[in-house]
């Protein structure tokens, strides 16, 4: 089953930490250009999260959102952070989920004044429907959180608005008076989402100030931390629901591989051991699914040796970084040594070492599955 993560991005460290606290043993994932993500599972292992920090502003948000999408091929992407409320009926600590995002800085300057030429990105129907379902369910608020979730437009620019009388404030009231909140990254995220149309993207904002000149006061009163905590709790609940829907979709496809294709029928080529299958096709209808099926050796030492070889292949292909590869090989060596030197064989120690290997290679689904098969083999012999 697809074990692709859900990417969660933030702009501020306080937002990042609020999400990171909800991950079980997050592990650093380094992009070749220096961007550092952390990948871990939510409590209970319900779904994998790839967490990243993009910094302030729409430009960096767009670049790093696209980078995260390319790096992880995620099931969905969530952007979580704080924002200023533009309407008095939205209390501090409440959440705003974007139905669409305005990039309000676009325009043209003419002799008779500045004319607005904004760009607008709308949330996908499916993502919006699921976000509303999670808001109604309120399971995310079971720990006593009282924040309410509002759905509506968000205005995204390149300034921190902290005034009701400034030129920017007047401009937004005049041209974007339905916007519920204002922030600085949503337009960049929405642009990246537009380039990846099949990817569900949701922008979640906790209200930490009123964009009215009182930001310093609300920050001193810790409203930013409260808003971030509410936003992170809701985002985690949304991620779990998105992952659940993806699992349901995968099961449905597995049970009905033909699906709704206009061209019924399935061609299945299976390569075992060292064999390889090549495909040359002029036109393909429906999907192509490539998986690896290996016959697990009956001898655990042989199985571990084969896994060690495939770990080396994964390192060579770039699927595993050097540190992860070395750590995994060390655990495999320990497992193999235990099999050779203990009498009777200490299968508990072997299993523990293999479980550590599975944790290290969790990002490479085919390797993790192979380790699971070997663990089952070892446990069956104990």
Automatic annotation (TrEMBL):
Keywords: Hydrolase. Pfam families: PNP_UDP_1. Residues 5-238 form the Nucleoside phosphorylase domain. Residues 242-269 are annotated as: Disordered. Residues 244-256 have a biased composition (Basic and acidic residues). It comes from Actinomadura coerulea. One of its GO terms (cellular component) is cytosol. One of its GO terms (molecular function) is adenosylhomocysteine nucleosidase activity. The keyword Lipid biosynthesis does not apply. Its EC number is 3.6.1.55. One of its GO terms (biological process) is L-methionine salvage from S-adenosylmethionine. This is 8-oxo-dGTP diphosphatase.
């Amino acid at each position: 089953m697809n074990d692709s993560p859900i990417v969660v991005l933030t702009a501020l460290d306080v937002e990042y930490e609020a999400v990171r606290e909800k991950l079980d043993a997050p592990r650093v994932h380094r992009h070749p250009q220096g961007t550092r993500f952390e990948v871990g599972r939510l409590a209970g292992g319900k779904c994998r999260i790839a967490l990243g920090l993009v910094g302030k502003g729409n430009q960096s948000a767009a670049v790093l959102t696209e980078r995260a999408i390319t790096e992880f091929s995620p099931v969905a992407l969530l952007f979580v952070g704080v924002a200023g409320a533009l309407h008095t009926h939205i209390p501090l600590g409440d959440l705003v989920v974007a139905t669409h995002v305005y990039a309000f800085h676009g325009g043209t300057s003419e002799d008779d004044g500045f004319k607005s030429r904004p760009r607008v990105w709308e949330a996908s129907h499916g993502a919006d429907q699921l976000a509303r379902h999670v808001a109604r369910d309120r399971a995310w608020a079971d720990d006593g959180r009282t924040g309410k979730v509002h759905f509506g437009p968000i205005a995204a620019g390149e300034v921190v608005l902290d005034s009701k009388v400034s030129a920017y404030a007047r401009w937004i009231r005049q041209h974007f008076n339905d916007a519920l909140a204002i922030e600085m990254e949503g337009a960049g995220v929405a642009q990246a989402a537009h380039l990846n149309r099949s990817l569900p993207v949701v922008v979640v904002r906790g209200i930490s100030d009123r964009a009215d000149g009182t930001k310093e006061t609300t920050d001193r009163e810790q409203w930013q931390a409260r808003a971030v905590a509410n936003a992170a709790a809701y985002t985690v609940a949304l991620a779990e629901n998105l992952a659940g829907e993806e699992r349901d979709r995968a099961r449905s496809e597995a049970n009905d591989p033909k699906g709704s294709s206009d061209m019924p029928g399935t061609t299945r080529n299976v390569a075992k051991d060292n064999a390889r299958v090549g495909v040359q096709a002029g036109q393909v209808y429906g999907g192509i699914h490539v998986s690896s099926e290996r016959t697990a050796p009956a001898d655990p030492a042989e199985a571990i040796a084969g896994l060690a070889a495939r770990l080396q292949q994964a390192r060579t292909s770039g699927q595993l970084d050097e540190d992860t590869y070395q750590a995994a090989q060390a655990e495999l060596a320990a497992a193999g040594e235990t099999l050779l030197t203990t009498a009777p064989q200490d299968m508990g120690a072997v299993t523990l070492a293999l479980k550590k290997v599975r944790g290290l290679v969790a990002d490479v689904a085919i390797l993790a599955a192979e380790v699971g098969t070997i663990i089952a083999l070892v446990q069956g012999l104990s």
